[in-house]
C-alpha cells in the first residue's frame, strides 16, 4: 500500500469508529478515539481504552500516561509520537475508567485488526494486559514484559513486545523502573528488527508464537 492509500484506509476506519453508536460507551463518548500517528510507522503502540482527557480531545494518550509515553519515546528512541502509531483496544472511554468489557473489545476488534494490517508495523508494543491478551494468551504481564516474540496474526508475522501500561508505571515506582528498562530494550529491538537476522519475514517458519531472543 502507498502512504496515500494507507492514509485513506485509516481515515475510513476512523470515520466508522466515530459514526458507530452500537455500544453504550460509544453513545456516551464525548469523542471517539480511533488512533493517530504515522501511517508508515514501524512501531505501533496499543493501549487499553481512552480516559478522561482522550475522550475530551478524541486523541489517544494525551493525559498523564501519554506524557510518560512521549517522554520515554523521546529519551529511549529519540522519537516523537508522530513517528509511531498509537491506538487502543477499545475506541471509546469506559465510564470511571473501568476495565473494558469483553463485548466492547469484540466490537472494536475489527477496526484494530484493520489498523494493524494497514500500518503493517515491524513491532507491536502492547501497553497493559488487555492489549497483551490480544496476542499472548495465558501469561501475566509481570512474567513476559520486555520479552519480544514473533506472533503470526492475520496472515503476517509481527514482533509483539509486551510492556506495562504507563498508568501502572505512574502508580508504582518499581513498575516505572521496569517500564523505563523495557523502553531502553525497545530501542535495541527496533534496531535489530531492521537487520536481516531477525526481520520477521526472513525468519524460518516456526511456531506461531516464538520467543525472539
Ligand atoms: N490509557 C489508555 O490505555 N489509552 C489511552 O489512550 C489513554 C490512557
UniProtKB/TrEMBL annotation:
Transmembrane segments: none annotated. Keywords: 4Fe-4S, DNA damage, DNA repair, Hydrolase, Iron, Iron-sulfur, Metal-binding. This is Type-4 uracil-DNA glycosylase. NCBIfam families: UDG_fam4 (TIGR00758). Residues 194-213 are annotated as: Disordered. Its EC number is 3.2.2.27. PANTHER family: TYPE-4 URACIL-DNA GLYCOSYLASE, TYPE-5 URACIL-DNA GLYCOSYLASE. It comes from the Bacteria. Residues 34-184 form the Uracil-DNA glycosylase-like domain. Residues 202-213 have a biased composition (Low complexity). Belongs to the uracil-DNA glycosylase (UDG) superfamily. Type 4 (UDGa) family. InterPro entries: UDG_Type-4/5 (IPR051536), Ura-DNA_glyco_family4 (IPR005273), Uracil-DNA_glycosylase-like (IPR005122), Uracil-DNA_glycosylase-like_sf (IPR036895). GO terms for molecular function: 4 iron, 4 sulfur cluster binding; metal ion binding; uracil DNA N-glycosylase activity. It catalyses: Hydrolyzes single-stranded DNA or mismatched double-stranded DNA and polynucleotides, releasing free uracil.
